[in-house]
UniProtKB/TrEMBL annotation:
<dbReference type="InterPro" id="IPR018296">
    <property type="entry name" value="Acid_Pase_classA_bac_CS"/>
</dbReference>
<dbReference type="InterPro" id="IPR036938">
    <property type="entry name" value="PAP2/HPO_sf"/>
</dbReference>
<dbReference type="GO" id="GO:0030288">
    <property type="term" value="C:outer membrane-bounded periplasmic space"/>
</dbReference>
<protein>
    <recommendedName>
        <fullName>Acid phosphatase</fullName>
        <ecNumber>3.1.3.2</ecNumber>
    </recommendedName>
</protein>
<comment type="similarity">
    <text>Belongs to the class A bacterial acid phosphatase family.</text>
</comment>
<feature type="domain" description="Phosphatidic acid phosphatase type 2/haloperoxidase">
    <location>
        <begin position="120"/>
        <end position="234"/>
    </location>
</feature>
<feature type="signal peptide">
    <location>
        <begin position="1"/>
        <end position="24"/>
    </location>
</feature>
<keyword id="KW-0732">Signal</keyword>
<dbReference type="GO" id="GO:0003993">
    <property type="term" value="F:acid phosphatase activity"/>
</dbReference>
<dbReference type="InterPro" id="IPR000326">
    <property type="entry name" value="PAP2/HPO"/>
</dbReference>
<keyword id="KW-0574">Periplasm</keyword>
<dbReference type="InterPro" id="IPR001011">
    <property type="entry name" value="Acid_Pase_classA_bac"/>
</dbReference>
<dbReference type="Pfam" id="PF01569">
    <property type="entry name" value="PAP2"/>
</dbReference>
<keyword id="KW-0378">Hydrolase</keyword>
Length: 279
């Protein structure tokens, strides 16, 4: 039999084998973490690369402990801000959906962010949001810590979200993890504005205290998990490409005279108001 005849008989079997091997590889490869059913965006990190919050954070402070006494003290101070401009800012800070969420740090970086003019930065913020949120999920599910409004019976800044928040553990804070991750990433991209960006990362998390949806210890461990997520992102090629592209976008936007459209002086003044005992 000729070599051509042998090949002709072998090729169909080879094709099937390659197809099955490809399916097996696809099935075993972990995929990037999805945000939720309402968005097509996925995080940069696959499931195996998401920081292990259950192993990394301690149990939340127990009732009667010094840690919980501080949680309660900060919560009382934060709730006293209801009805003030700081409460209104906390309500605004609760929005993490995109496109609105992309501009939570607009004043800190001195620039508006949108999918048309700064697509790489927009993409980086949206995808890292998913990773930083995923970094808190295991501990949230395990501890199922009741949120402050469930304990003190007082309203939150987002009453429409309360039903969902009751089913989602308080510890650690997902919003804070996201805000702190954004602060660290944006400080890399716009280093000359790093102080303003880091300050925004802190007060972004503190807005969750003012909203009456998180305890002080939730905020502290949320920052910790946000930093852990950023550390994992540094080794991700897709993230590094977007980081470089975002840096170039901001440089170009500055050269063209673009700036934040918000009243940043007013926002800065409001954000200086904080619970006195918050860490």
């Amino acid at each position: 039999m000729s070599l051509i005849s042998h090949l002709g008989r072998a090729l169909p079997g080879l094709a099937v084998a390659l197809s099955l091997a490809g399916c097996a590889a696809t099935a075993s490869r972990p995929t990037a973490v999805e945000a939720n059913v309402t968005t097509k965006a996925v995080g940069y990190l696959d499931a195996a690369s998401v920081p292990a919050s259950l192993a990394l954070v301690p149990a939340p402070p127990a009732a009667g402990s010094a840690g919980f006494a501080l949680d309660e003290q900060v919560s009382r101070q934060a709730r006293a801000l209801r009805g003030t401009p700081r409460f209104a800012q906390a309500t605004h800070d609760a929005e993490l959906g995109f496109p609105e969420g992309a501009n939570q740090f607009s004043c800190a970086i001195g620039l508006d962010v949108d999918a048309q003019r700064t697509p790489a930065l927009y993409r980086l913020l949206e995808r890292s949001r998913i990773d930083a949120s995923a970094a808190t999920r295991a501990a949230k599910k395990h501890h199922q810590r009741p949120r402050p409004f469930m304990v003190n019976g007082e309203p939150t800044c987002t009453p429409q979200d309360e039903a969902g928040l009751r089913r989602n553990g308080s510890y650690p804070s997902g919003h804070t993890s996201i805000g702190w991750a954004w602060a660290l990433l944006l400080s890399e991209i716009v280093p000359d504005r790093a102080d303003a960006i880091i300050a925004r990362g802190r007060n972004y998390g503190e807005s969750r205290l003012v909203c009456n949806v998180h305890w002080q210890s939730d905020i502290l461990e949320g920052r910790f998990m946000g930093a852990a997520a950023v550390a994992r992102l540094q080794d991700n090629p897709a993230f590094q490409r977007d980081l470089l592209a975002a840096r170039r976008e901001i440089e170009a936007a500055r050269r063209s005279g673009q700036h934040s459209s918000r009243d940043c002086a007013a926002e800065e003044a409001v954000l200086k108001v904080r619970p006195a005992s918050a860490l």
